């Protein structure tokens, strides 16, 4: 009996996780990808559900001779999500909070890896329930 209950809870947790990821992917495809224009989406959906006070980090490779846009998009309930772009020496290349914009357009002279760190601001839970929301980091390029 204990094994059946444990299996049911595990299955329920898996279903909830899959449903949350599907909703986040739908949000990203429906709202965020179209906002990349005139840049062409690179085809990768980098999105996750985050709660206030959480952060996520992503490493991406950018190729020489290309013009890119890094764009963040998040659900309104999360507030003003900010991100920073770091080079391989951990030097800040872009800070969305300082730039007061959620996209970073740049040209790449030499192929390089950049790190993107997304931070969701802390917030008071008014109901005692911490709400999670979708955050997406999208990469676009020009031909």
Q: List SSEs in N-to-C order.
A: HEEEEEEHEEE
Tally of helical segments: 2
Tally of DSSP β-strands: 9
Give the class-level CATH name: Mainly Beta
General form: globular
| Poorly predicted ranges | 6-20
Structural class by SSE content: alpha+beta
Mean pLDDT: 85
Architecture, CATH level 2? Sandwich
**Radius of gyration, rounded?**
18 Å
CATH overall fold name? Jelly Rolls
Helix content: 10-25%
- Biggest sheet character: 5 strands, antiparallel
**What is the domain tally?**
1
Tell me what portion of residues adopts beta-strand conformation. 35-45%
Distance between the termini: 60 Å
Architecture overview:
The protein has 143 residues and is α+β, with helices and mostly antiparallel strands. It contains two helices and nine strands. The strands form two sheets. Strands 1, 2, 4, 7 and 9 form a five-stranded antiparallel beta sheet that branches. A four-stranded antiparallel beta sheet has the order 3-8-5-6. Mean pLDDT is 85; it is low at 6-20.
